[in-house]
Amino acid sequence: MKKNSETYLRKIAAFKQKLRFFLENKNYLEVQTPVVVDTPGAEVFLDFFSTTESFGSNQSKKWLQSSPEIEMKKILASSGIEKIYQICPVFRNSESPTPWHMPEFTMLEFYSKNHDFHKFMKECGQLIQGACALKKSITEFHIGKFLNEKFNLHLDQPENFLIEAKKRFSYTNHEDDLDSVFSKVLNFECESQFKDKELVVVTGYPSFQLTLAKENQGFSERFEYFVHGVEVANGFHELTGKENIERFAEIQNKRKKLGNHPLPINEKDIHVIASNETPSCGVAVGVDRLFALSEGQSSLYE
What we know:
The chain has helices at 6-24, 69-79, 117-132, 143-151, 158-168, 178-190, 243-258, 267-274, 287-294; strands at 29-30, 36-37, 50-55, 58-64, 83-91, 104-113, 139-142, 199-203, 215-216, 219-220, 222-227, 230-237, 280-286. It is of the alpha+beta class and 302 residues long.
């Protein structure tokens, strides 16, 4: 389907309206935040697009957001509004070329204060089911339980997991670090278990995979949704208060160890986010992927 055809433009507009209708019926307020920002994201592995802001002879470096997360969390922290959402462009540099990756794409993010994590996860699943007209019930897959039951591997014991996984799986290398080994095991052992399912919610991610999600007994309070084996959503039980400052420092240290460029951070942004002590949940949904899958496409480029 050509992206500048009338058919595509009408279909994608109707699809976005369907997403808006679902969220606004649940009292989410649509917001709009800047795309050019000081703090573009909070990811360990991503690279960011940069630009230069000029005022006469004064110049400052700015960044294109990899997600509206930081700016939206600033709204949550300072506005008093409890439920917000946004559909917007996001940008990710140096992403590996695959049928499902693009350097610029459309993201839906929504956040809710005082929302039970499991109910929020279910609400996200309902949005995806409705958007893609999926009929089957959601399959649940817990990574930690699966690896424990099938291979006696324990994600809540990171050092032991690293040693035992390297012994067991020939596709790992001696020099692989913990994240590399987990990613390979996830790809080869776990995703193959649900790639043919219509809709799967995946939980049981290890806490050593640094994100802005709360931890619970060695696991991250995080979920991902997959439609026909393609990841479409990534949600968290969000950190609160000073946990955010500590986690950003950990992410920065991990980027340094990996040899990645330092994470661009405006400390004022992080302190605004850290002022929110109210329990919150949030999720990012790939609109382009979701739309393509709803149309029966096998890539974003059809």
